[in-house]
Please model this.
Amino acid sequence: MEARILRGPQPRGREKLARLIEWLHWVIAEAELYDVRYPVKGAYVWRPYGMKIRRNVEAAMRRLLEETGHGEVLFPVFIPYEFFAKESEHIRGFEEEVFWVTKGLQEGESRLVLRPTSETAIMPMFKLWIRDHTDLPYKVYQIVSVFRAETKMTHPLIRLREISMFKEAHTAHVDREDAERQVREAVDIYRRFFDELAVPYLISRRPDWDKFAGAVYTIAFDTVLPDGRALQIGTVHYLGTNFSRVFEVTYLTPDGRHELVHTTSYGISERSIAAMLAVHGDDRGLVLPPSVSPYKLVIVPIFYSDEEYAAMVQASRGLASELQAAGISAIIDERRDKTPGWKYHYWELLGVPLRVEIGRRDVEEGRVVIARRDTLEKVSVPRGSVVDHVRSLLSEVQENLRREAWQRLSASIKRVETLEDARVVVGEERAVAEVPWNGRDECGVKLQDAVDANALGVPLDRDPDVGGYDLRDPICGDRATYWLRIARRY
Amino acid sequence: MEARILRGPQPRGREKLARLIEWLHWVIAEAELYDVRYPVKGAYVWRPYGMKIRRNVEAAMRRLLEETGHGEVLFPVFIPYEFFAKESEHIRGFEEEVFWVTKGLQEGESRLVLRPTSETAIMPMFKLWIRDHTDLPYKVYQIVSVFRAETKMTHPLIRLREISMFKEAHTAHVDREDAERQVREAVDIYRRFFDELAVPYLISRRPDWDKFAGAVYTIAFDTVLPDGRALQIGTVHYLGTNFSRVFEVTYLTPDGRHELVHTTSYGISERSIAAMLAVHGDDRGLVLPPSVSPYKLVIVPIFYSDEEYAAMVQASRGLASELQAAGISAIIDERRDKTPGWKYHYWELLGVPLRVEIGRRDVEEGRVVIARRDTLEKVSVPRGSVVDHVRSLLSEVQENLRREAWQRLSASIKRVETLEDARVVVGEERAVAEVPWNGRDECGVKLQDAVDANALGVPLDRDPDVGGYDLRDPICGDRATYWLRIARRY
Model:
């Protein structure tokens, strides 16, 4: 498989990305992914190219959930207010954030909440579905719209009033041990999911003051966007018996006792797509991981006459069907009124991983040119081995995107010991600081204020404890036990 | 492929089905498709087996729409009231039926309507997306939840307050001619969709008093359920410039003029699934068309000892992987604590098209037994040719369901000439009557009242005119021009 290098790796501009929200507005408009001009705040429109990407992302998630025994369900959007209000912490956390429906109700009907999350919709059904220990664990998921009456500034894909791609899983278990095993399974599923999107992540146990309303504890996945802000991209909650107690969801044990189930829930949204676009994109536009790119490659026939056009299009179609037969989805840009240069820019904007150029000389020499979107490299390969080259280049692109994104993430986490250093890391270097912490809420909250940042929590993906080091909590001054991650956050 | 008949076609009981709503409640509960116990009227829960069927139905629809150049989009649930109210006929038709959100809004924000259909959400975006004639036709679709504040009795899958599987397509065209070409394309897509579900249909042009609010005209697909009532299962609307005028959606013609686009919309919902379940089901439960059945066949190993269990399960797995390799999804019921008879009933309830039984004698003789869900026939076939037998049986089942359902539909349409006969056909025979009609609204409306039925409209799938016959409108007494279909309707 002799390949001739025509152009080596090129530096990719990522300046625009530093102004992330601006870049996101630009790229979703130019690539026609998503439209922010819909006349309701925080509610946007997915366009066909965006939907194709989204469907591939959903399929990846579905596959992981089905493989691990989750059944897909679909619950109503409406939750009766009295169900929504049953769990006191939950209602306290969400009450200000929900939309209510008041017109259209039946006489005497309770007001209806548009679900902001579905624990309180699902528990009454778990009560009906779960009878005895042989029914457990019970694992379901759905991909739905949820609603949050956001008063803050909304941003496409990131902060929404209608979150239209909320994948929420809900599970019930015989005891805490099995529920915590499920928490670990969920964390593992999310790792594999983000690995498929080549999105790097931090896994942290959220501090108690920032856990999900109604949870015993919350484990969160965050990534760091090119502007240095952390973005929460997934959460896993151990809910204990907080919900099962108020909804009376019990099961019969083998020895005939009724016990409360322990439940968990875990969610992912279109923020996963925002993260994927932002961590890989550049000044030319999208750079999609091959795993979820709607087209793995685009073929651009190069022609200077009608005769050449016919011949090059024919050569392109031959190649496309060969690739198709090998399971590689290719698209041919046959437009006659656009120049090759225009098309290169167009497909770079759309983030298609590989571009194949077929011109007269290539055909005569029995070769084709392949350009990589990620490194902008160009190689010339023999026509006979294109499929093999494409296949190995696609896995190289996937791996390269993953590796580079992880390197950037790692470079943006810094352990510091003083408040001053924490401020420099978060404020000037726009990175995530890990700061010694005594584990007490009041000291952590004060630290947030002092640094003007949010605590992401205690690391779960590296040593959470300061270990034998005699480190001090920089706020309260006493001996520190943990590292606490802090960062500016979306 | 020598097959030995062990049992010929059996009569299938369809008595329960005559009480359709009861049967539907029974089957969706027993087969765990769908749960009606959710605590909001007209809002139900899809369970995993139901979701698997639904996903296959959606995939069939998506394939047909993508093949014909429709791009998938996703619009917000919220429509600002002032947009919703722009088209006067539309708001008049839907105003009483919509849910409003009033809590959770921003200061000064217009009240938000939960979409009952999306014309008024999509038009403001068409205005932004469509510039000149080269952008047309513009064809999009989405599969979403829509909301109707139904005051009538709700029924699972059939009459809902949250319709959770609303496939709506919206298109824009240069002129009436192209829009009407699209109407014919939509009718053709729906034909192919219902053919895939083996659901028979009547195609009628709805009378003006029953067209979609805002349409120039509406073409509807209806099927006849086993209780004799017609169910509307799809509609196609030509909207003219009614919506483009109020939303100012224009395009630039080649000679530089601004013209209004002509639009269409067409919808299908989970009623398509209700129809599929009802037209094929029987007293034992579901009978699923192979085209959308989550499992094409179930393998039941027959055993009377531990040793036999191991051997039969092994034989079953060998067969399952052979079938899998041939692209036929099979499931093995390996449960030890259930008898074969129990399992037969279970999988019959779930409607799996074929059942393969593998017992010791079968293995010794090198044969397997295949039972058909539709005819309850049993044949014994050589082990070596199972895959071929299964493949041809699956297409026979599909074809047989289609043929039988169409026969029943045809038998339930009767042409009559007098009011008395119409009453007998609709009231006693529980069928659809085609009655001569002069084409005037007031005579048609009176006919509905006189027969206590609804007009489905003028046939488009057979000759709509009475032709040369000198037939009289039975209400108004003058000469009839058309046939008008009338029936009791859901």
Summary: The CA atoms of residues 333 and 364 of chain B lie 21 Å apart. The domain at 413-487 of chain B is CATH 3.30.110.30 (Translation Initiation Factor IF3). The radius of gyration of chain B is 26 Å.
